[in-house]
Amino acid sequence: MDIAIAADAEATLPALTEAVKRLLTADRKRAFADRGAKLAAAHQKAVEAARVEATYGWDASPISTARLAMELWGQIKNKDWSLVSGGGGWPSRLWAFDKHHQHIGSSGGAGVGYGAPASLGAALANRKYGRLSVSIQNDGDLMYAPGVLWTAAHHKIPLLSVMHNNRAYHQEVMHIQRLANRHQRGIENAGIGTTLVDPNIDYATVARGMGVHAEGPILEAKNLGPAIGRALEVVSKGEPALVDVVTQPR
Ligand SMILES: Cc1ncc(C[n+]2csc(CCOP(=O)(O)OP(=O)(O)O)c2C)c(N)n1
Ligand SMILES: [Mg+2]
Asked: Which of 171, 182, 221, 229 is buried most, with the most CB atoms less than 10 Å from its CB?
């Protein structure tokens, strides 16, 4: 393609558009359409597989992460929502994202307590649009800077935090298990320094102590939807709320 690039990008645009049109022969158009159809079919297949997988352990206790994601989705999908935490896992597989402000994006770092403060910052940014901010809040992540709960209450920042509380820095548990396996030394010590049990942390009490409406720990899946509903009532009045959900590890 031979195009004179003008200093002004706008001025280059017509020539560029013409050049692209010349390249888009009928053959190429057909190839693109075929590729698009293949991708659409693969996507549809992936969504169907995710739906089936999400049903596994649907009623389990601790609660499955798929159930958590879908209970939350069921109650926000018809609102102007924004996911202000990581969306990896079930939300990216089963929620319908079609607007840029529906996800905060990823941090570029993990395991350093980014989640809670980042979600609050995003919720503050969303507040002026009257937009509903929701986060799936990891338990270990909230241990780094729990004071964000007080900040949320103090500044009346509407944010619904639903906890993915697997009572562990679980990424670390898996990492240590993997390395212990590699060295064939058994995985029974992998929970040392990596699990958050004995005592279990009662995040609802922590949150209430910071002035945030909170419920939990929730262990039975059937209690999750109603708790999310009550928390959403609070958030709709302009305040933060937290639902502590005890979950499967992943
Ligand atoms: C500075 C630093 N220390 C430690 C880690 C290792 N690390 C990765 S994820 C994680 C904890 C994650 O725990 P949680 O937020 O509860 O999420 P989970 O893995 O349990 O879902 C840690 C400590 C890191 N990435 N950076
Ligand atoms: Mg955890």
From this structure: 221
If you measure from the C-alpha of residue 87 to the centroid of ligand 2, how many angstroms do you get, rounded to a whole number? 15
The DSSP secondary structure of 191-232, one letter per residue, reads TTTTB-TTTTP-HHHHHHHTT-EEEEEE-SGGGHHHHHHHHH
Cα 133 from Cα 127, distance rounded (Å): 8
Question: How far apart (Å, rounded) are the C-alpha atoms in residues 117 and 115?
Answer: 6
How confident is the model over 4-53, as pLDDT tens digits? 776 777 888 999 999 999 999 999 999 999 999 999 999 999 999 999 99
Instruction: Tell me what percent of the residues of the chain surpass a pLDDT of 90.
Output: 90
Write out residues with Cβ below 6 Å of ligand 1: 110-112, 138-141, 166, 168-172
Range of the domain at 22: 9-51
Nearest atom of ligand 1 to the alpha carbon of 171:
19
What does the pLDDT average to over 170-199?
Answer: 96
CB 144 within 8 A of CB 112: yes
What are residue 169's phi and psi, to 5 degrees?
A: -85, 75
| Alpha carbon of 245 to ligand 2 centroid (Å) | 11
Whether residue 196 is contained in a domain is answered as no
Ligand 1 atom, smallest distance to 250 CA = 21
Statement to judge: residues 13 and 94 lie in one domain? no
